[in-house]
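User: Could you walk me through two proteins back to back? I'd like the raw sequence and the structure tokens for each, with a short line separating them so I can tell where one ends and the next begins.

Assistant: Of course. Protein one, sequence then structure:
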Amino acid sequence: MIEWGLRALGAFWIVGGAATLIALWRSRPFDRLLAALGGGWRRRDRIRAGLLGLGAVLTLASGAGLAALDRAAPGLMVANALVQAAWLVFAARAFPPEDDDEALGRRRVVVAFVLWCLATAAVVTAALGDAVRFAALPLFEAGLAFVSLALAAIVGWSATARAWDGAGADEEIRGDVPEPIVDPTVPHRWMFAPNIVTASMRDVDTDRTFEPAALKLPEALTERLEAFEIEVLEHLVESRDDPEVYVLPARIRRDLEARIGELAEALKPHALNGETSWWLPPGEEPEPT
């Protein structure tokens, strides 16, 4: 009975590890855009991508080993626990939570780590006490090692490739870089529209888009606009109805609406006839539970 329980747990981790790897891969354009907005793909971003990707690979491999009751499973689980611990220590220093939602997410990660450690301790104890017999399966282990190394190589390439092409990330995501404004002191009617496709400042008469820094606005206002744009991008999630569309959770969008209105007001002295407007990605209510 214990053996079948472990096999079921292993199957669950296979699905979880695979889902995490897919999510990390699909988030690459979004991560690269955030890196471009933040000045490039930095060392901390490479470490984050590497640790999260390696943890997902080890979760999948641990699940496969546990489902097969292979002798490698306990060791893989211990290795994954060490990687998760390294990520939590590094994240606390390099990526401290910036709001209540991020703090809640970090606490959930800690809880998941504690549960993993408890499960690892139980599996190791069962193996040492012969409560469960883990078999030597050379062919399975060879296949598992090949797949794990291949996935780890992809994770490493992904993190490194982002570092190589980080300087061009914004151009690749947003398409052709718009021409600079000939005279940034000439007022325009502006729409502030943070989004994942174009620069956030849109001239409503010509439909051209520009980064806030290109407009020669007061430095404090430019910093507020850029910080708000990054915050919007960090909260974007895939729509349940169309994974190609990014939306904001409805509760977060309501909070952002009030604040973006204040930024639009602050832009009025720098707009043609004081005409400004704003736009946010659509909101989506959480799926009912």
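----
Protein two, same layout:
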Amino acid sequence: MMRVERVLTIAPMDPNEKAIDLTRHMTGEERVSLVEDLRIEMAKVCGYEYPQRVRRVLEVVKRRER
């Protein structure tokens, strides 16, 4: 599995900014890795047993340019 080094930056949040804007520089594989890392960390924080797979079907759509 590919590991991606993460750098935490604390800055004011723009309410109009979307997650896709923050991860635009990442490849699809890096984004999936990020989501998987977030699932693992949330399971730890919430005290849940780590789910071995995603429970729902994800729909991939193409984003329209503004």
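The CA atoms of residues 28 and 60 lie 11 Å apart.

Let me know if you want the two compared in more detail.
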